């Protein structure tokens, strides 16, 4: 069967190639690895450029099966010119199943470190940034697009290109428009936190950015809240004087206090660190019960002075936070 697949792909007509590509997807991983040594990637890429959507879909599925679980094949496929072809497909294709396959294929290819620079050297990053904000794109395609950008941005030298392509704004738009407790919000906020870690000024000029992140802290899943707190911590640490007031004015305190008490372990740590930056608690020395009460009262006075009101039900959270900060 392996020999028939190879011969059909290399020397068969288009109909025989289609049948061979379908059969290729059904082979075991070991069998696929063997046939990949026989220069079958080139004819599959040629099929990828077909005007017939069925042929394109079948060749994408076959290439996906070759790339899955094989770093060597991922490198071979990229070297053969697949990224440019995928770029052209995503720019022109309207059939969503092909778009989803292309996005999944890019995600797999981008997981290989040896491919990242080559992928980033194309216009693919700009295209992905534009695509993840489209309403007509499926959630799965958006998730794969964001995951591809995340893979690429693990190389620090690629982050500036991701930022200059408008990713921070696009990700904020995704977070703002989707369910804050969804996987999409989690992945978008995770990538944005990674970007801000390397480039904390990247969201400074984006109107409404702080508001979106505060809403994520209030309404998001535990992971989304963690990433949103991490982003605000990065922003505030980078330029406290400029950003502290803006963060407070957006009403961050109730949600931030909640995360400091019952968030993820990492979320709690970052929330408490951010609280210290926002409230300037670093100089407080807690000696006894009375001093804790005084600190709580001082925090409440500072909050009121900023024009923000915390409901009475939050007082217990404030006390818990102060207690934990002292331990």
TrEMBL record:
Q: List, alphabetically, the Pfam families matched.
A: ARM_PUB
Which chain regions cross the lipid bilayer? none
Q: Which residues form a coiled coil?
A: none
Q: Where is the signal peptide?
A: none
Top-level division of the source organism's lineage: Eukaryota
Q: Name one GO cellular component term.
A: nucleus
Q: Which InterPro entries match?
A: ARM-like, ARM-type_fold, ARM_PUB, Armadillo
Keyword field: Repeat, Ubl conjugation pathway
Repeat as a keyword of this entry, yes or no, is yes
Which GO terms of type biological process are on file?
phloem or xylem histogenesis
Which positions fall inside the U-box domain?
141-281
Q: Which PANTHER family match?
A: ARM REPEAT SUPERFAMILY PROTEIN (PTHR23315:SF120), U BOX DOMAIN-CONTAINING (PTHR23315)
What name does the UniProt record give this protein?
A: U-box domain-containing protein
Species for this entry: Brassica oleracea var. oleracea
